[in-house]
Amino acid sequence: MQITQELYTYEIITKEQTDVIPKAAACLARSFIGVNVSGKWVQEPMVGQLNLDYDDFYQFTLGYLESTVEQGYCAVAQDIHQNVVGVLAGDTNAPEIIGEDVFEGSFYDMNVILRVLEDVDKRFMEDYKKRNGEDIKDGELLHLFMLGVTAEHGRHEIIQQLGSRLMTKASSQGVKAVLGEATNPKSIRVMEKYHNMKKYKDLDGNYIVHKYQDNNKLNGIPANIADGTYILLKEL
Predict the structure, then answer these.
(1) What is d(CA 17, CA 162) in angstroms, rounded to the nearest whole number?
(2) Which residues does residue 181 pair with via DSSP β-bridges, in sequence order?
(3) Cβ(176)–Cβ(139) under 8 Å?
(4) Hey, which of 25, 35, 70, 108 has its CA 20 to 30 A from 54?
């Protein structure tokens, strides 16, 4: 009799799991800064273009997880050695537009990414208000903020498992829809294929997208790698 061992275990973590949170932050930071997967270099295009530093990005992801984990929308995949090899982290806060630089020092260029996200979020919020006659409230949408996978094998299965756990929970909590900002074609394809999210069109029928070629800090990203950050949505 053959026993097949599951490669990974999945769970939504809580703020009490103080040993897992830093591991989750490290997994996210590594996958955004860049990770070698089966001989292929995978990284988030804006982070790569701006050449952000791992330590700075780790502190950012750790801060995000520590401030949102108690909402119950951070799912992790762990291997048999309890290494965190996949993370999907989100929150149900209404999008917030700060409109000014919040990062400084060696992490100053993170402001460029923040501006891109705020640009698409703001246009989405305006379109939402036109459609619904009111602003987005906390708890209405699950905002999937960060996805990171450092595992060599079963990457798509990890993405599928993490997403379905969060979406099932959001649906049971009465959340109306799932929102994400996809910064490259790979994340768009993955979220379309495994979670049925779609590129969002505004009332005029246009995609909400921040084009990298129109951004003087990001126009060095080759168009065949990524052309912009898009809003993705799925109604629950």
Answers:
(1) 17
(2) 231
(3) no
(4) 70
Kindly tell me the number of DSSP H helices and DSSP E strands found in the chain. Answer: 6, 10
Report which residue type is found at 232. Answer: L
Q: Give domain 9-235's CATH architecture.
A: 3-Layer(aba) Sandwich (3.40)
Instruction: Pull the structure tokens for residue 9.
Output: 């275990």
The pLDDT profile of the chain, 236 residues, written as one tens digit per residue, is: 555 557 899 999 999 999 999 999 999 999 999 988 888 888 999 999 999 999 999 999 999 999 999 999 999 999 999 999 999 999 999 998 998 999 999 999 999 999 999 999 999 999 999 999 999 999 999 999 999 999 989 999 999 999 999 999 999 999 999 999 999 998 999 999 999 999 999 999 999 999 999 999 999 999 999 999 999 999 99
The residue among 173, 204, 222 whose CA lies nearest residue 46 is: 222
CA 17 → CA 11, 70, 72, 77, 155, distances in Å? 11, 10, 12, 14, 24
Query: By C-alpha distance, which of 113, 115, 112, 64 is closest to 90?
Result: 64
- Angle, helix 185-195 to helix 155-172, in steps of 10 degrees: 60
